[in-house]
Amino acid sequence: MVHGKPSGRLGRRRVLKLGAALGAAGTVQVTSPFIVKALGEQPIKFGFIDPLTGSLSLLAVSEVQGARYAIEEINSKGGILGRQAELLVEDSANDVGTGVEKIRKLIDKDQVNVTYGDVNSAIAYAVSQVATQKGILHIVPGGHTDPITGKDCAWNVFRVCNTTAMDANAISSLLMKKFGKRWYFLTPDYAYGHTLQAAFIKNLTAAGGTYEAELLPIAASDFSASLIKARAFKPDVLLNNMGGLAQIDCMKQYVQFGLDKEMALGGALYECEEVVAVPTAAQAGWWVMEWWWDQPGVPHVKAFADAIVAKYKKPCSARHWFGYVGIQSARLAMEQTKSLKAIDLAHALAGMELPPEVALQPGKVYYRAGDHELMPNVFTGEVHPPAASDPYNFFKVAELVPADRADPLASTGCHMTFPS
Asked: 306 in the Ramachandran plot: left (φ > 0), alpha (ψ -120 to 50) or beta?
């Protein structure tokens, strides 16, 4: 007994004094009157929103896998600022309202330090606006629509994937040169499809080309009527701008209708997750890969790609790279600033060049200060059926187009301002 009290208990006054002393030292946090918890025990939280169900789920799953791999790698090397990293994942279900609800939960209830999302450009746009209202750092791994880092750019929002203008500008002249200037578009009727098709049409009409276009539901599955219209138009190129399961269904029906013998395929994105899921005859055309795993001689790329294949038993895709880069970018900013404040992290990321082990491609890869868009290479080339001995090697790079050449800052409409 000490002063008439059990020796195993601390009086309230002593607890408060102890908490004040330790708090002043900056080493611990008092979480309740009788619990003292070391700050280093609290994880740094990363909140990730993606459509894990629905027509874009194939792409979203790969993004989350890339993010998980980054978190595991970070923790295996001691964490960030002496603390472990934690990934909290929410399913937007390919719905804008759900995405907004989920990001509010991550910020208000889970108190994450950084937010991410979404594959769906409309959701990406909406959740980035919530993050700006809340004053939290937000990184868009894979939502492409231009206004996010264009006319509606914000101090706290950064993007890993390309803009739609960047992808269209990188591939348009190649398609016209190889196949001709008569195009037919199958395009999803939402933010991504609208800005992508507009960029393509601008390039095509400037060169004197002609086109017809259809806007289709993002989760469309029956393309028979659209493909009949395309056949009647007799295009040089069918540009399939759909994504995820919709693009896979469209490609399968393209082959079933025999259109592979009548017109070329091409366009912006034909992603790894989709190419491996279609018939051989549809593994064709000239497209953009926003990152590609087969880069002989480029440091760190093979190790990353091999690790993803070994862990997830699927090809290492641009989506894996998007998720990985998003997490590692925030980690780099935190370590540079020794801070978790959004304003400090945003200042650090603006203009930051990624190190080779994160960039995973040649040349300078950096966040452009003027709009917070990542400036990597745009991989343009040909999709082809893989050899049986190398089932994931289905793309041949023709050219690496520098992103700032494909989408100059002056054309974005961004006027970046930071809080004073």
From this structure: alpha
